[in-house]
Design brief:
This protein has 251 residues and is of the alpha/beta class. It is built from 8 helices and 11 strands. α2 packs parallel to α7 and α4 (112-130) packs across α5 (146-154). The radius of gyration is 20 Å and the shape is globular. Its main location: membrane.
Length: 251
């Protein structure tokens, strides 16, 4: 009788186990470009940082929307009062906020559990600070493998890279970044998914105003990544939390 019960229980568990394995092996979608004609998504990595306000103001003044991929603990701790204020400011100004993982580590060098920790910690922070769970994640350095995609799928996320790089993070001068924007605009692709970094003063104050003017003059609409792909920006939208002892980058 005991053997029969065990065999029956084992058979009942097989479908659930198979479903779990299948989910673990499913790869998240990777977005490398916009899909809507004449749309440009200006995205900004590595914040929230001090230049976010000026970036937002330049976008809002141009009736444009940006997408900010935030880290949890890179240039600063996302729970610090000034950092958290920037996150909420960007969201309340109508920009899309998304995950750039916790500490800007190369996810392809991490274990399964470490990958989830890098994703979960910043998702939790964005939910506490702004009340949202992001549906987009940009892997640091644009690096990902199947393990990263599997983890992202389980977490309900789309991976986002880019098809245009202003090269601000690899040492391009403002003039060089502007030349790259001029070059891509001259080719007039149907759409552009542009990589920038909000941590550079010259990006905020020189390159961005130049890019906005040139892109709009060429007839492009400057929208969020969610809008230019037709995908939801968030998995859930709720009420921001109240600051307590868990709002810390200390483990």
């Amino acid at each position: 009788m005991r053997a029969t019960f065990f065999f029956t229980a084992l058979l009942a568990a097989v479908p659930a186990l198979s479903a779990s394995i299948a989910k673990r092996q499913t790869l998240a979608r990777v977005v490398t470009h916009c899909t809507k004609a004449n749309d440009v998504a200006l995205t900004f990595d590595d914040g929230p940082w001090v230049y976010l306000y000026d970036i937002s103001k330049a976008l809002v003044a141009a009736n444009a929307t940006g997408t900010f991929f935030f880290n949890g603990n890179n240039y600063g701790c996302i729970y610090d009062a000034d950092e958290a204020k920037r996150v909420l400011y960007a969201y309340q100004k109508g920009h899309q906020i998304a995950s750039h993982t916790w500490a800007h580590l190369d996810l392809t060098t991490l274990t399964w559990d470490q990958i989830h920790d890098e994703m979960w910690r910043v998702e939790q922070a964005l939910q506490k600070i702004a009340g949202v769970v992001p549906a987009f994640m940009r892997p640091p350095y644009g690096n990902y493998n199947d393990l990263v995609r599997q983890a992202s799928y389980i977490r309900g996320q789309v991976l986002a890279t880019w098809d245009f790089d202003s090269e601000d993070s690899v040492g391009a001068t403002p003039a060089q970044s502007e030349a790259l924007y001029t070059q891509i605009i001259g080719q007039h692709p149907s759409n552009i998914l542009a990589l920038n970094h909000e941590t550079y003063e010259t990006t905020a104050h020189q390159v961005l105003p130049f890019a906005i003017q040139k892109l709009q003059a060429a007839g492009y609409h400057l929208v969020s990544l969610a809008e230019c792909t037709g995908l939801p920006a968030y998995q859930s939208v709720g009420t921001p939390g109240t600051r307590d002892s868990t709002w810390t980058c200390q483990r």
